[in-house]
Amino acid sequence: MRTHYCGDINETLIDQTVTFCGWVHRRRDHGGVIFLDIRDREGLVQVVFDPDTVDAFNIADSVRSEFVVQITGRVRGRPEGTTNANMKTGLIEVLGKEITILNKAATPPFPLDGYSDVGEEIRLKYRFMDMRRPEMQDKLRFRSKVTSHARRYLEEQGFLDIETPILTRATPEGARDYLVPSRTHEGSFFALPQSPQLFKQLLMVAGFDRYYQIAKCFRDEDLRADRQPEFTQIDVEASFINEDDIMGIAQGMIKEIFQKELNVDLGDFPRMPYSEAMNRYGSDKPDMRIPMEIVDVAEFLQDIEFKVFAAPAKDPKGRVAALKVPGGAELSRKQIDEYTKYVGIYGAKGLAWIKVNEIEKGVEGLQSPIIKFIGDDNTMKIMTKLDAKNGDIVFFGADKAKIVNEALGALRCKVAADLNMYTSEWAALWVVDFPMFEENDDGSVTALHHPFTAPSCSPEELEKDPLNALSRAYDMVLNGCELGGGSIRIHDQGMQQGVFRALGISEEEQREKFGFLLDALKFGAPPHGGLAFGLDRLIMLMTGSTSIREVIAFPKTQSAACVMTQAPGAVSNVQLRDLHIKLREKPKAAE
Amino acid sequence: MRTHYCGDINETLIDQTVTFCGWVHRRRDHGGVIFLDIRDREGLVQVVFDPDTVDAFNIADSVRSEFVVQITGRVRGRPEGTTNANMKTGLIEVLGKEITILNKAATPPFPLDGYSDVGEEIRLKYRFMDMRRPEMQDKLRFRSKVTSHARRYLEEQGFLDIETPILTRATPEGARDYLVPSRTHEGSFFALPQSPQLFKQLLMVAGFDRYYQIAKCFRDEDLRADRQPEFTQIDVEASFINEDDIMGIAQGMIKEIFQKELNVDLGDFPRMPYSEAMNRYGSDKPDMRIPMEIVDVAEFLQDIEFKVFAAPAKDPKGRVAALKVPGGAELSRKQIDEYTKYVGIYGAKGLAWIKVNEIEKGVEGLQSPIIKFIGDDNTMKIMTKLDAKNGDIVFFGADKAKIVNEALGALRCKVAADLNMYTSEWAALWVVDFPMFEENDDGSVTALHHPFTAPSCSPEELEKDPLNALSRAYDMVLNGCELGGGSIRIHDQGMQQGVFRALGISEEEQREKFGFLLDALKFGAPPHGGLAFGLDRLIMLMTGSTSIREVIAFPKTQSAACVMTQAPGAVSNVQLRDLHIKLREKPKAAE
Predict the structure, then answer these.
(1) How far apart are the two ends of chain A, measured CA to CA in Å?
(2) CA distance A124 to chain B (A)
(3) What is the ipTM of this complex?
(4) CB-based contact B565 A168, cutoff 8 Å
(5) Which family does it belong to (chains A, B) (predicted)?
(6) Where are the beta strands (DSSP E) in B494-553?
(7) Positive or negative, the Cα torsion across B359, B362, B367, B371?
(8) Segment B233-260 mean pLDDT
(9) Which of B54, B55, B59, B37 has the alpha carbon at shortest distance from B46?
(10) CA A334/CA A339 separation, integer angstroms
(11) B571 touching A, CB under 8 A?
């Protein structure tokens, strides 16, 4: 139906006759002729109809925005002064000879350019219109290209694309499962996978050696953050490898994608132990574009009377730390109040600060409500340790270490964004040496990654002191976002049972939930490990989008619904009966 | 952890030291030395341990089948007379210097070679062992390569890989949906997609022009045939194309896959109208490897007294037809009885036959219980029309056309398989010109493909005589299997509503179920079409497997369960309460 895409018609085709199809992007009447900008996925081309070609002129005159047309015409150079260097096709136009209306279009629910004030709800309801916008076209095409690069890279490295089931058994990843009632097994349910974790490990036990999959995963979580009920992972697993091998492969993949699609060299990814990341950046996914660090100052504050600082300074689980913000002395009282509110989200009870006006004057050159509690001497020692300069502001956190880290870690990112302090566009690193377990408030322990992660200690050490055991896990972090993560897995049945024990999972529960995994480990499981990347987030970062919804063709809203198809929807009683379930009656009004 | 895969160690490495990992495939004691065959995904290598290397020898002596080991040794040529030309590594062996046991293995639940009498249930329960067998390794690797070829081919043709949702709205494909209760929308349910049909059409409306996806699809059907609850489609859609364009692209893809992976040239695919396929082969997916056709013989039998033939011969909806089987006169009475039973499955009430012994003797040279009913003259006219030769058998079908077609169509395939009558290994074709609708017994009509398929007639003709309307659908058939199918879709809102009307779908139901599609057609939908291939079936055919379960890593059983993970399983009441559902109480025993 066409000889060329609109966007591909250029000056090499001058004097040739071309046929193309697309949407009427703009229609103008000018000096007795009609100009149509016709759009397809490759771009726009300008078509001119003059009244000499009566039939075509009349049709062109009748078209409206978003009509679908097929046009034949002759390519010619644009008259001098009317060329457009910003347009791929800006040196030419097409003199229209024939035009066929392939389909009409009602007035669009929102304009496709200059749409910025259109609400997301209406964009999602008419997603098929929203995606006509060049930004959305570009983002989804970009996504397609990135997955293609990832696949090729992994296939060249010998990874096999193997599909794992979507209808499966409830998994222990922690989040809530989506359930699917079984018709043939009354009272039983499938779960949609939170990840293909156990299946990919079984594929290693089966000897496939290198597996990958671009896999749909599902979590029925509250979508407060930028999350989707279904999301996509680049999922990778390999056998007979160690951390260096698999991290090298993964890093190679991400570097290649950045090189090919953004022409960016991410360089070598440094590695940082978890403990260092927490200490220096208050985060296990530090944004290394930001030239600020969190510095311990407890040493100066243990013996002061001011309990707010002294108590956590003396508490082994406490932390007192400072964040020096270069140039931050200009922050207004109002801004500081806002930051105080901001760190409150993370549990911080306040946000002490010292502005450095004229450091050469000693404490006299500082401005702060807290110096009187800290003491002049201690204050100056802190300023020296921080190497404070005129114009800086120093923020303080003093609380349980967890709260201080989260509060100052988040503050560091927030201030950097507000003051645009980034020293580079991209900064990637690996975070390694994670703890195996986290202690909950009730004293129970949870796996920091998942219970199949191998510890870097012996089974005996694990048993003796689980909370100090480190794991062989690794996270890839880019610009303060976790792009992907994984670990060397446990391949020894005894070690796996040891981890289950540490997590308080009884033998019976182990058997019931993980019997097939324990079986698999018994019959000759190879050493193996892998990782998974969040594809949606990767594409979001690479395209500079503010939400993963911008890089998913048909996303769900925050309440996990599709406003376009009206999913989820009602179903018939027959369907429910077939599935052996019924709706729960609403509780009666309180009696 | 290794320098080479086992299967890659060959005579070019003689005298070099190599390290490899894998499973102990076989262990033999022979003349005081120990032979281990070590297996990884690339193949087997033979390792020899002699008692001089004491430590290694002792470890090698202790290993058992399926232990996981790492071995370092020197490659050497095998002694004359012990080489094995059938093995990639058959010219060499490795003199083992070091061996580490990476993991032990309990005795496998079934032997990994010579397993033929192992039941499928036990193979599926220990799928991670079953997949260690070279056949399964080969099949899944083959599958990975085929999907890779398909992707590359489509991407080179400008198709973008775009993901569509798994959590979606109930679709109208006809089969039963898998449902997913929503937690955030009480009483509402998502459905898992039976295909991405509507989403891919919306992507065309959105202007992506060319879309593909290797997509998981779901149908909650009874798995009597070789079906799976979840299966995989190569799903394709394009805009501004006609049948020839999209069929050319699809055919090119399949031809390339066969050429690259099997070194088979499938040639040009002929096209055959649906009506011809039904008449000549009794099937809309004729197996063209079989040199037999179904031939109408009603013309000779309309006026005879024998009602069994005469009635359908005169009925416009009836059919009387013959299938001549060359060499079939050798079939025993018992075999014929079995075929009679076989066609009974398709509703045939009997299977009349005539054996051709000595055709030169006229009816005297024939053997049949039915000649006396047909009459000598009619019999010989039929023999002449069929060009019957000595040694043939002729089977007859006489009933409603649908029954005759199905019965003789199936018999044709069955006899061809039994007598190995195939004239080629592969035979592909397109079946085209399908009817838009089928009439049900109650007089209502159903879409033969789906209600989004474009008719090849005008809206007015469709309205006037829907049952005679043909569609712009096309099926690709290979060796009697439907590999894929698709159609040019309706892009005109009025036409779409006309088809919905013909199907008896009220305006209100149209709006409720397909409102978003009708909206999309209203806002400038381009002409478009596409198709989908059944990936599982394609791989099954290409690998000569007898079931799609053989080409899926973790398939479900016939009762839609996973015997390995024990899915589906029980869930807690808390989970059900969160989803606003409960289990239906079992009905009390009859009162």
Answers:
(1) 70
(2) 11
(3) 0.94
(4) yes
(5) Belongs to the class-II aminoacyl-tRNA synthetase family. Type 1 subfamily.
(6) 528-534
(7) positive
(8) 98
(9) B37
(10) 9
(11) yes
- Give the C-alpha separation, B230 to B52, whole Å: 56
- The residue of chain A with its CA nearest to that of B190 is A568
Residue type for position B372 = K
**Could you tell me whether strands A43-49 and A92-103 are parallel, antiparallel, or unpaired per DSSP bridges?**
parallel
- Nearest by CB to residue A562, choosing from B165, B203, B578, is B165
With beta carbons less than 8 A apart as the criterion, state whether B523 and A134 touch.
no
Name A240's Cβ contacts closer than 8 Å, sequence gap at least 6.
A209, A526, A527, A528, B1, B2, B21, B70
Structural domains of chain B ordered from first start: 6-103 (2.40.50.140), 134-267+531-574 (3.30.930.10), 290-423 (3.30.1360.30)
Residue A232's CB is within 10 A of a number of other CB atoms, namely 23
Query: What φ, ψ does residue A316 adopt, rounded to 5°?
Result: -60, -25
Element (H, E) at A89: none
Please report the beta strands in B219-328, taking only residues with DSSP state E, as ranges in sequence order.
230-239, 271-273, 294-296, 318-325
**pLDDT, tens digit (0-9, with 9 covering 90-100), for B287-314:** 999 999 999 999 999 999 999 999 999 9
Parallel/antiparallel/unpaired status of strands B43-49 and B92-103? parallel
- Across the range B529-558, mean pLDDT stands at 96
Structural Rg of chain B based on CA atoms: 30
For residue B47, the one-letter residue type is V
Other CB atoms within 10 A of residue B239 CB: 29
Amino acid of residue B422: Y
In the numeric block, which tokens belong to residue A434?
């994670």
HEC-encoded secondary structure of B24-65: EEEEEEECCEEEEEEEECCEEEEEEECCCCHHHHHHHHHCCC
Across the beta sheet with B318-325, the strand order is: B294-296, B318-325, B393-400, B352-356, B366-367
User: What average pLDDT does the structure give for chain A?
Assistant: 94
The reply to whether omega before A568 is within 30° of 0 (cis) is: yes
H helices present in B426-476, as ranges: 459-464
Q: What percent of chain A has pLDDT over 70?
A: 97
Q: Is B449 annotated to bind ligand?
A: yes
A556 has a chain B CB within 8 A of its CB: yes
Interchain CB contact of B185 with A (< 8 Å):
yes
Taking the complete model, does pTM exceed 0.90, yes or no? yes
On the question of pLDDT at B589 being above 90, the answer is no
Judging by beta carbons within 10 Å of its beta carbon (0-12, 13-18, 19+), is residue A442 exposed, middle or buried? exposed
The whole-angstrom separation of Cα A266 and Cα A251 is 9
Question: What letter does residue A554 receive in the DSSP assignment?
Answer: S
Q: Do A190 and B568 touch (CB under 8 A)?
A: yes
Tokens of residue A406, six digits = 């989260």
Name the closest residue on chain B to residue A583, using Cα atoms.
B581
Question: Does any CB of chain B come closer than 8 Å to the CB of residue A132?
Answer: yes
Find out whether A505 and A555 touch, Cβ atoms under 8 Å: no
pLDDT tens digits, residue range A306-356? 999 999 999 999 999 999 999 999 999 999 999 999 999 999 999 999 999
Do you know the residue count of chain A?
A: 591
Distance (Å, rounded) from C-alpha B231 to C-alpha A167? 11
Q: Is B102 on the interface with A (CB under 8 A)?
A: yes
Stretch 365-424 of chain A: residues touching chain B, C-beta under 8 Å: none
Residue B588 has pLDDT above 70, yes or no: no
* Residue A504 marked as a ligand binder: no
- Cα–Cα nearest to B265, from B252, B250, B277: B252
The residue of B149, B152, B163 whose CB has the most chain A CBs within 10 angstroms, and thus the best one to mutate to test that interface, is B163
Q: What's the per-residue H, E or C state across B227-245? A: CCCEEEEEEEEEECCCHHH
pLDDT tier at B591, thresholds 50, 70, 90: very low
Q: Which residues pair with A484 in a beta bridge?
A: A476, A533
Distance, C-alpha A400 to centroid of its chain: 29
CB atoms within 10 A of CB A51: 12
Two structure tokens written together for A35: 């100009």
Helix (H) or strand (E) holding B583: strand B581-583
